Amino acid sequence: MATGILLEIRDLRHYSSDALRPVLEAESNLWQKRLNWDYLGSARLLLQYLDSHSLPGFVALDRGPDQGMALNLNRTPIIGYIFCVYEENKAVIGNVFARPAMTEGLEISPKDDSRHAVEATLLGHMIEMLTHSPGVERIETQLLLHRDGAHTALLEQAGFHVARRLYLERRLLHETIQPNPPIQDGFLLRRWQDTDLTAASQLIVESYRNHPDSGINDQYRSISGAQRFLYNIVRYPGCGVFVPEASHLILDRQTDQPVGIVLGSRISPECGHITQICMRPAYRRLGLARHLLRASMEEFQKMGMTELTLTVTQANDTAVRLYLAEGFRQRHRFDAAVWQRNNL
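Structure tokens predicted for GCN5-related N-acetyltransferase (344 residues):
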């Protein structure tokens, strides 16, 4: 632990939004800088949960010499936090963050060992709590804000399987997008409609059966889980503001069923994000995924977005090759991690 920091870890539910606001503001700045992601919408939603005092998690207090050991805990600066949410017998660690060290209002350096130590301490407390909770059979987390490797050793030591994921971006401003040729006979490209939720959920389950990403996110394994996944994209700001104009399906004209889908959101005033793209296995290698991707890219460009981003598991070679061929480049790498009780 860095000199001058004496941590005290306390229950997140004891604190209101006002106490966490400075930390969330610092976190929002990092989301913008590292990912071009406006995190304020997510932060506002999180603040609402904090005021309900029902969000499981921990805060880190700086009880170092500079703060004075007799200070009221409600006035002791919060320098970091972590939270989780429960889904039946699964827990999802939503985030872990500690404020960068500051000197006269400026970050000391991009590499802040004390900050990493605070985050590791919080993550360790959360893992210990969840792995010792009898009702929790599975734990998932995607540490999107953190560079890959930041907490890999801690996670693996606790029994997590860690997968590397890529955060890719493509410039849209003054850039040429290869035009889509007419779609093949027998298929129809159309925009997303709210009535597509059920059919799209079935598509996701079929697309990710025996796929590595279903090991990272078990919502892909069931219709009900896929429906929750889609509802969170369409209705909530966690993945940005949903953009139906940039979201499309490809239908098989014979069955009138979707065989591929792309969903897009706006994560900042100038940046779009592909939140989901998938194809039924029987319809892959026909150029349909590329058609969906270009259709979404074209719409984002028409809207005036200057950049487009997406995430992909590094081991998904086919998808990575498609994105690189369409002009995406790596901006960031991060870890996704899963713990399963008894490795079932």
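Confidence is low (pLDDT under 50) at residues 102-111.
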